[in-house]
Amino acid sequence: MSTIDNKSYAKVVQNGVQAVEAVQELHSTGYAADDIFVLAHDQDRSDRIADAANANEVGIKEEGVFTAIANLFRSRGDELRAKIVSLGFTETEAAFYEKELDFGKVLIIARKTF
Q1: How far is CA 93 from each of CA 14, 48, 82, 102, rounded to the nearest angstrom?
Q2: pTM to 2 decimals?
Q3: N or C: less crowded end of the chain, CB within 10 Å?
């Protein structure tokens, strides 16, 4: 699991158990906890999985202040797409991943910081 041209790595998994396993695998390949993010459609589920997996949720540091403020007024789907884009993905990729989250899946994103 490596990044190509410094692009973020993403993996969609079926459930929280698989998400924790994916995060552990990323840790073992050299990603720091600060560079791994967990997203689920339900905010509480994102919180629980991130805590269990020793990963992060996308926050102001990654999104920027303006996007974080805008997310307060967006639907959850729009907010998730904005968060995914803030981690280096295109709008098209973000729409694909957000649709997967609609089906109850979990998205793991890892990026190398330099």
Answers
A1: 18, 25, 11, 14
A2: 0.83
A3: C
